Amino acid sequence: MKLDQVKYVFFIGIGGIGMSALARYFKHQGCEVAGYDRTETVLTRQLTSEGISVLYTDDVMEIPVHFDSPTSDRLIIYTPAVPSELNLLVHFRQGGYCLLKRSEVLGLISKGAYTIAVAGTHGKTTTSCMIAHVLTDSGYGCSAFLGGISTNYSTNTLFGQNNVLVVEADEYDRSFLTLHPDVAVVTSADADHLDIYGEHQQLTEAFRLFLEQVHTDGTKIIRKWLPFDGDIIYSGDAPPESPADTPDAALHAYAQHVRIEHEAYHFDYVTPDQVIEDIRLGIPGRHNVENAVAAIAAALTLGVEPEKIKRALSSFAGVKRRFEYIVRTPDTVYIDDYAHHPAELRAFLGAVRELYPNKWLTVVFQPHLFSRTRDFMEEFAEALSEADTLLLMDIYPAREQPILGIDSSRLLAQIRGVDTHLVSETDVLEFVRNNKPGLLVTVGAGNIDRLVEPLRKLLTDV
What global pTM score does this model have? Predict the structure, then answer.
């Protein structure tokens, strides 16, 4: 498929972050773009305002006239998250159209670019956004396909003037194996997506294959203790004293003197050859200090000046739904986060505790996927025990059918020492209305974000 010949692009599942980024790319290239999604969201409304037509009914009669024949200038892009029996998908398949997965298209786009790909079961969205912001803010420049909405730019797509491309490399469905990056960052490889991989070992092997696709003269930036060889090994703390415990790599980069000043994290970036002192990070969390170390290493690889990197990280405003402050007053703090894996929950709630050690922590959590809840039941229970009060919602099924015996009540029964409540959306609003918690967080990857604006109003209306 030659993308430069494409004039009309239709997306099945256009409302996803990754899909909407590609939709904006093709619109920017001058193509006629349309798509389908099951429900209307803030993001799909934004796409409509940008001149992209979005359908919400699975009806082939609603397909725009531009897609009336399977010619070489028409491309259908779909996400594997949509059901195979979807009428639109069946229609295009049976009609002989060119259908490509989102990951395949991203591979084609990145083929001719100097590509920085950030992979990981968690941390990849924030780290890729950091790298893109550092390159943009410093004047170096880049284009980017991001897995979240950058707060600095209010978009998930950047268009630069050079040939550098920053992409979030998604491990789901082995999508990242379509990429052949020049620089690869791996932030984590925890067990996840076991509905796809079956075992953690198979997931690890997919990451290993991804790293094998890095160009021979490229750079592999690997988080400490991951079972992969790298050119740069990075961490959020100092390396171990014993050289025998340090992975064999060309360089070890780490954060030193990590501290909180005026609710902001400061640290030094250290390698055997270089120290960048007193970096102020624009977003909170020790896990984000570690993400910043990876972003700095990537930027230095491209020759970005240290002072420009410091300035960019100080102004980095984060990613929507990643430690996003919704209300921040002396009396009330409300934070929203996308965390949906136990490791992410531990990191997020640990950061909240570190910043606000004397406040009663009320957590609203919506589990994501029956299979993930089943596979990590004990780990979720342990992570959620960090709360003082826990409001636990029903599992968000996404692409899955229910699994017998797996529900939120079973998870709730495993949590000890916490004031727990099994709740609906209405219950959450009623609880906050009556109790006005001083420290509130909403966490999850489903549709819990629908609560954000109502909760903000409840906490700010006097």
Answer: 0.84
